[in-house]
UniProtKB/TrEMBL annotation:
PROSITE patterns: PYRIDINE_REDOX_1. The keyword Flavoprotein applies. One of its GO terms (cellular component) is cytoplasm. It comes from Sphingomicrobium lutaoense. This is Dihydrolipoyl dehydrogenase. Binds 1 FAD per subunit. Residues 6-326 form the FAD/NAD(P)-binding domain. Its EC number is 1.8.1.4. One of its GO terms (biological process) is cellular respiration. It holds the Pfam family Pyr_redox_dim. Disulfide bonds join C44-C49.
Length: 464
């Protein structure tokens, strides 16, 4: 049997890759992780989930002080924006967390191979001019911003999500191309800090993939907060002159074009898998039509000894999905049973309020189960939301009418991202709406809205 440098080599140190490497090392496998970025953590920790949440949280404080929310509760302040300091606390959070992963690599004896890896064959890669061999290689290279054809991102006037985190001043008018999670989160940051924000979306509603009721309600909330929307609208060109950009748009179904001027344009139309430059052709591995690497249930590719997880494989491009797959793939390599239930992957939009969902939308549930029962409860009737001056939002629970099993939960609430964990766990255990309805929830908490929505499935909520 051939001798290898490592039992496991993970390509990429994002949430999927670094977790896979640590788990493999914990299971006694000699492990390395190749990463070309100067810091570990991938897009998520460096320029994605983590820094955007730092800006979202800080901008919420500013907005609460500026829009009179704090004043209505008896806290009278006149806020002054120090954008440099706000950026500083964001960078500090990133530095601490990326440094934390480096510490965990050392603690678990994971070797960090600094450089981008390219396959030479199924058991060897080249990293920074050196050949490294491994019995198992895990592709965890993540994803990058999908470009808009004909539009060049300069990260100054036309920016990606990365550039939108680094703006040196608040734009007068930011146009966000794309009404998905990233566009709405970053658009919310700059709207709170004083920018006029217009969101242009090709589809007829924002937040594709989420439940229709939630999408419509979210749209109303964002409009109330001051974000302008141009739905069913296609951007055909963006021209930069000096420090201004002019967008040319037309109705998605055809019609007369119109123009819009902005001093910042955020392109947020999605992400695509990072597979270029990996040398997949050297091992005979092809990608599907979406550029993804297909795997079996255990995350094996069709090439023996090569595995893949995270944004490069089918499924939602979410850090927590990649992390779960990272644990599962390491356990499968070690001969254990690593499983990810892809039917129960929660998704969260970290706006104010947050928007979260897990499982099926009502339309999907009807298609799969035929008859469904739906329970809804407004946050306006939730006592904690009332005392916190957080009336916007609702909880919606969808159950299979025959079995009462919960198949989807959707909510808009300030802590929706935390609340959805209860729903995901309940669904993982096959809970019925009755199970949730008869579980005692602490009072007063936002989570009581989940209990009430479950009671509404039974036709008997208490507080509406």
């Amino acid at each position: 049997m051939a001798e290898f440098d490592y039992d496991v080599l993970v390509i990429g140190a994002g949430p999927g890759g670094y977790v896979a490497a640590i788990r493999a090392a914990q299971l006694g496998l000699k492990t390395a992780c190749a990463e070309g970025r100067e810091t570990l953590g991938g897009t998520c920790l460096n320029v994605g989930c983590i820094p955007s949440k730092a800006m979202l949280h800080a901008s919420e404080y500013y907005d609460a002080a500026a829009n009179g929310t704090m004043e209505s509760m008896g806290v009278e302040v006149k806020p002054k924006l120090n954008l440099d300091k706000m950026h500083g606390q964001r960078r500090d959070a990133v530095k601490q967390l990326t440094g934390g992963i480096e510490f965990l690599f050392k603690k678990n004896k994971v070797d960090w191979l600094k450089g981008y890896a390219t396959f030479k064959d199924a058991h060897s890669v080249e990293v920074a001019g050196k050949t490294v061999t491994a019995k198992n290689i895990v592709i965890a290279t993540g994803s990058s911003v999908t470009p808009l054809p004909g539009v060049e991102i300069d990260e100054k006037i036309i920016v990606s999500s990365t550039g939108a985190l680094e703006l040196e001043k608040v734009p007068e008018h930011m146009v966000v191309i794309g009404g998905g999670v990233i566009g709405l989160e970053l658009g919310s940051v700059w709207r709170r800090l004083g920018a006029k924000v217009t969101c242009v979306e090709f589809l007829d509603q924002i937040l594709p993939g989420m439940d229709d009721d939630i999408r419509k309600e979210a749209h109303k909330i964002f409009k109330k907060q001051g974000i302008d929307f141009k739905l069913s609208t296609k951007v055909t060109a963006v021209e930069v002159k000096g420090k201004k950009a002019t967008l040319t748009m037309e109705p998605a179904k055809g019609g007369d074009s119109e123009t819009l001027e902005a001093d910042c344009v955020l392109v947020a139309i999605g992400r695509r898998p990072n597979t270029e430059g990996l040398g997949l052709e050297a091992i005979g591995l092809e990608v599907n039509k979406r550029g993804q690497i297909e795997t079996d249930h255990d995350f094996r590719t069709k090439v023996d000894g090569v595995w893949a997880i995270g944004d490069v494989v089918p499924g939602p491009m979410l850090a927590h999905k990649a992390e779960d797959e990272g644990i599962a793939v390491a356990e499968n390599i070690a001969g254990l049973t690593g499983i990810v239930n892809h039917d129960i992957i929660p998704g969260v939009v970290y706006t104010f309020p947050e928007i979260a969902g897990v499982g099926l939308t009502e339309a999907e549930a009807k298609e799969k189960y035929g008859e469904v029962k739906v329970g809804k409860f407004p946050m306006l009737a939730n006592s904690r939301a009332k005392t916190n001056h957080e009336p916007d939002g609702s909880v919606k629970i969808i159950a299979d009418a025959k079995t009462d099993r919960v198949v989807g939960v959707w909510c808009i609430a300030v802590p929706a991202g935390t609340m959805i964990a209860q729903a995901a766990q309940a669904m993982e255990f096959g809970a019925t709406s009755e199970d949730i309805a008869y579980t005692c929830h602490a009072h007063p908490t936002h989570s009581e809205a989940i209990k009430e929505a479950a009671m509404a499935v039974q036709g008997k909520p208490i507080h509406i």
